[in-house]
Amino acid sequence: xxxxxxxxxxxxxxxxxxxxxxxxxxxxxxxxxxxxxxxxxxxxxxxxxxxxxxxxxxxxxxxxxxxxxxxxxxxxxxxxxxxxxxxxxxxxxxxxxxxxxxxxxxxxxxxxxxxxxxxxxxxxxxxxxxxxxxxxxxxxxxxxxxxxxxxxxxxxxxxxxxxxxxxxxxxxxxxxxxxxxxxxxxxxxxxxxxxxxxxxxxxxxxxxxxxxxxxxxxxxxxxxxxxxxxxxxxxxxxxxxxxxxxxxxxxxxxxxxxxxxxxxxxxxxxxxxxxxxxxxxxxxxxxxxxxxxxxxxxxxxxxxxxxxxxxxxxxxxxxxxxxxxxxxxxxxxxxxxxxxxxxxxxxxxxxxxxxxxxxxxxxxxxxxxxxxxxxxxxxxxxxxxxxxxxxxxxxxxxxxxxxxxxxxxxxxxxxxxxxx
Length: 420
Known about the structure:
This protein is an alpha/beta fold. The chain has 15 helices and 10 strands.
């Protein structure tokens, strides 16, 4: 017995609503038609209260037209399908509807019983296929979690690694192994469901090119992929990995998340996986200076991290002197110049940057406290927290610039008040 799908019809002409309902009820018992009374508001309420599957709507309605109604319903659920039934054979309407993901655009004057029912059955097929995919994804998630537990044990370098690998039963060989490590922005703070969705996106893309693979989430939140790649020592033989990584970065980006990755050099034993992972973790420090969505190459660590050299860069003594001269424009210029230089060179360790900006912020706090800027001092803890923990250098710069600009503006306001 097939599951009954719930359909609502939204049209301000009662005769049209009744006509469409009659066609559906005449030809199939597999659909439940709910009455909206032609009200867009009631249709939205039904989508909240009922598990609506299909919305059939007109375009020209008041006070809310069909396209606006679709947008509002899509805010409630992305699992509802839409059919537009209209008097208007207008490509502009059809184009807007297609952008919103409607299933079909039918003309009232030309629609037949067969055409409408075929459209409904097409939607049913899509819903059933999605249900099958959800079952497959649930199985996939379970398998990934089972294998993930084995990999967590292997990465703890237990003495019985050979025994754990035997239980894992990986189809990977020890020839030309590569590891791709993916790190999503603030992965450790993501809800579990969102972490799993990213793993599934990566797995789906990898399976199109490498049917033999291992994928799991490391205990620190990074996603680890192991692959066998035909490698002859040339750069061109690695292009397939870079292409794959780029596609995954785009796939995850399309879901509103930023992710970066490191591709390792080849290694020759699954037992080395833990050691390789530990060596390449440091590469992600380079994300400190950039947006997410990067492939971090093996050449990234050729230059060792530098400490901030006060001879080459902005010294606290010079900054303090121009600050107390109230040359605020020059201070801001120096701060911007310093930030741009650090951002451009990518050579200073994140730890050294955080330490330097902590000292800078304490200097600013000391200066502005002389002007009784209590409300800025109240913000100090949040700004200091950003300096110490923000994943990107850009966030630190924005916090510093914002604090400085607000403080200077407040001083200017105070000076104006004193003059008056």
